User: Fold this.
Amino acid sequence: MSKLVIDIGGTWLRSELIAEGRVPVQEKIPSHSVLLETYVESMLQTHPDIAEVSISFAGQVDNGTIVSAPNIVVKEYNIKKYIESKYPVTVKIDNDLICALRAERTLTKTPFLALLYIGTGLGSAVLDKGCVVRGVHNLSWEIGHIPFRQAPFQCGCGKHNCLELFCSGSGLEKWYDYYGLPPMTLEVLRHTKTAEAMQIYANFKEAILYATATLITLANPEEVVLGGGIVQANPWLESEVQKEIGDYALASNLTQVTIRKSTLKNASLEGAKLL
Ligand SMILES: [Zn+2]
Assistant:
């Protein structure tokens, strides 16, 4: 019997096929190249010994059903029911940040943990007294879609003022497009001294501080973990946030909080294994 573990984000679909006594088989493909259900079905047909499918999904998920996905094309929203009705497998699926939280909590002693992940999108998750904060439909802590500032383009969720538009890989791409700038990394952006580039970087920095301060002020965590592709590629973000967070978060909430970057290479995938 084997287990298929998938992490689907806005840019990459990563999977791991795990079976006892065998080296796990890993795969990484662009998310837009395949629909999630098509990928799962093709794996189940190629590997009929798969008994369980665990999915970390970069979007809102409630009780096995995808609710919304600003950065992923979805056709089959009721993915659990769809796959389980056709194949003799158990499907587990949860939000990618909640999966990441499961993985991060294994590395810390504190039961008061908050995650801020910057990748294609911007996400957060909160552990309070050891319990994952979920809300009535598992939709809580959608920090990427709280109002921040008006942008001249639309977010994947349909609004024009989301924090994610200023502090995410997809948001940066939209700004480069808008100003006619070539795509560039955050590292190149912060050293580019044109008025537009400086404005995009200043907004990005303001937004990451705003997001971190919101988490610290509202959730009162003991530890904040910064992660995701953009943080991994730009480890200096950790000290930038530590240096200036005092100007943004409520002082009393800041006194006993540690801000650090994630040490996990792919927390969402690791968390999906724990579903
Ligand atoms: Zn949005």
In short: The chain has a mean pLDDT of 96. The two ends are 17 Å apart (CA to CA).
